[in-house]
Design goal:
Blueprint (H helix, E strand, L loop, with lengths): L2 H33 L11 H10 L14 E4 L2 E4 L6 H11 L5 H22 L4 H13 L3 H4 L5 H21 L3 H12 L8 H11 L6 H30 L11 H4 L11 H10 L3 E4 L2 E4 L6 H4 L1 H15 L5 H17 L20 H9 L8 H18 L5
Antiparallel strand pairs: 1-2, 3-4
């Protein structure tokens, strides 16, 4: 292509991204109106903002109980029971808004950043810009992530930020920018610890997509990013030790609901109940008042149709004998990650769909990258994702989370 043609193509890519962004904001506005949610206001469940305000005063604990929040109780004090990374942007925002940070807007900005990162990767894979824009929207908004962007509560901030950081790490890693990719991956772990599963997979996929590299050369290229990630992990360890005397303890094990539980936060004991709920329970059930959406979780695949496509793609590759080692490893890490999530006692609590399963969606993006010959969705794939979006949009207006 000539320089003029390249410039024109880039303008068209930006145009498609602008349209995609407008559609995203229109969906958010419509859903906020339908749900009666604040579009950009603060959340009552503002644990990260409270943590940021405590940091500004030089304290690691909150120093006071907020009974409506999930706070860890340790040595007679109260601590935010979540990994610390989402508090960092809130810390900056407190200098402008004080305790009234625009939580609902923040989660939307995380989701939009994730959409743009997915779009950039699909363009790199030479997708048609409009197909790439549609899939970027549906991959993010066509499942359990959709209701999470409507409320800036502590749980949803963690998941939307982790999703954004993870797909951004995928884009950077698969574009060859290994050091910033591994840095963002490390930050994602500081939002959702089980996202640790993505790191080894990203390095494996990156290595096998560059077969001309020796293992020694690959290790040398990855080393700066690995060291940077370990430095971030060291910060988490120091923070945890300063608060709870344990480098691995973010605080959830000191929540009253888990300290009073015979099996704790994570246990094989919880696996059977979670499999029943997140594999066998349909999103809709019939009640005396009519059909209703399940308010405490349902089938994770129906709630996240991208995961159905992931299984279909892998099965087709197995049958067609196209499933190479990176594809097998993608599915292995997906299964391991899903298994770990299913060990949690609550499975996400009050929710539409299966909100923990939103953490698994980036595996489908990695797998799509490995299917280098695929440049657009088939009509049935697009229809499935569109149906998932409609279901979650309607369900969000009935299940206020």
């Amino acid at each position: 292509m000539s320089g003029k043609e390249i410039s024109g193509a880039r303008r068209d890519d930006i145009h498609a991204a602008a349209v995609m962004t407008i559609v995203f904001w229109l969906v958010c506005i419509a859903l906020a109106i339908a749900m009666g949610e604040s579009f950009a206001g603060p959340s009552d469940y503002n644990s990260y903002t409270l943590q940021a305000m405590a940091w500004r005063e030089g304290r690691l604990s909150l120093g006071v109980d907020y009974p409506y929040l999930e706070l860890a109780v340790y040595n007679g004090d109260w601590y935010v029971s979540f990994p610390p990374v989402p508090s960092v942007p809130m810390y900056l925002l407190t200098f402008i808004y004080g305790v009234w940070t625009p939580d609902a807007l923040v989660v939307k900005l995380y989701a939009l950043a994730a959409i743009l990162a997915i779009y950039a990767l699909l363009l790199r894979c030479r997708w048609n810009r409009w197909h790439a824009a549609g899939l970027s929207l549906l991959m993010t908004m066509g499942g359990s992530m959709l209701p999470l962007v409507m409320n800036g509560a502590v749980w949803y901030q963690a998941q939307t930020m982790a999703f954004m950081l993870t797909v951004s790490a995928v884009y950077l890693m698969l574009s060859g920018r290994t050091t910033p990719a591994l840095f963002l991956y490390a930050l994602a772990v500081g939002c959702r610890p089980f996202n640790v599963c993505y790191g080894p997979l990203l390095m494996i996929v990156w290595y096998f997509r560059r077969r001309n590299r020796t293992l020694k050369a690959a290790a040398r290229r990855l080393l700066p990013g690995v060291l940077l990630g370990l430095m971030v992990a060291g910060c988490y360890a120091a923070y945890n030790y300063a608060r709870f005397g344990n480098v691995f303890e973010f605080g959830h094990n000191y929540l009253p609901e888990f300290t009073s539980s015979a099996y704790g936060q994570f246990s094989l004991h919880h696996l059977g109940e979670n499999i029943s709920r997140f594999f066998l329970t349909l999103p809709l059930s019939r009640t005396a008042e009519g059909w209703r959406f399940e308010p405490f979780g349902s089938n994770l695949f129906l709630s996240n149709p991208m995961l159905i496509l992931l299984l279909v793609w892998y099965l087709a590759d197995l049958i067609g004998r196209r499933a190479d080692l990176p594809r097998h490893m993608t599915m292995l890490f997906f299964v391991v990650h899903m298994f770990l999530l299913l060990l949690h006692r609550t499975g996400g609590g009050h929710q539409l769909g299966a909100r923990y399963a939103a953490d698994l969606v980036p595996y489908s993006l990695i797998y799509l990258f490995l299917k280098s010959g695929k440049k657009r969705l088939a009509w049935w794939e697009a229809a499935l994702l569109a149906a998932g979006f409609l279901m979650m949009f309607i369900g969000s207006t009935q299940v206020h989370i």
